[in-house]
Structure formats: structure tokens, C-alpha cells
Specification:
It is a single chain. By secondary structure, the protein is mainly alpha-helical. Helices cover 32% and strands 0% of the residues. It has a domain of 38 residues. It contains two helices and no strands.
Length: 57
């Protein structure tokens, strides 16, 4: 992570785990939180909902 952060050329760095699920708005919401709060780091708790009728996670 430190190596990647040091090589980054843009303002933000996102950490991704290859075995985790991220919703389609994950990065958008993280960037929006940065802009609204001016914090140095943001994160989310994990919580999943499964909808059996549509088979959506």
C-alpha cells in the first residue's frame, strides 16, 4: 500500500481487496465524503442485503 501511494500521481488513492464486494457507487460516495468533510481518510462498514426475488446482492 505504501509503495502504491508513493507512486500515485493523482490526489486520491483507493484500497481494494480482491475478495470483497464493492457497490457501484462505492468510490463516488467516498469522494463525496472527502469533499463534504475535508477529512484525510474515509471508510465504510460492511453490510450486505440479499434480495431473493431479483437475486441481487
Amino acid at each position: 500500500m505504501n509503495f502504491g501511494r508513493n507512486q500515485a500521481k493523482l490526489k486520491y488513492v483507493a484500497k481494494w481487496d480482491d475478495n470483497d464486494y464493492y457497490g457501484s457507487a462505492y468510490l463516488y460516495e467516498a469522494l463525496n465524503t472527502f469533499e463534504c468533510t475535508k477529512d484525510d481518510i474515509v471508510g465504510k462498514r460492511t453490510g450486505f442485503m440479499y434480495f431473493p426475488k431479483t437475486k441481487e446482492l
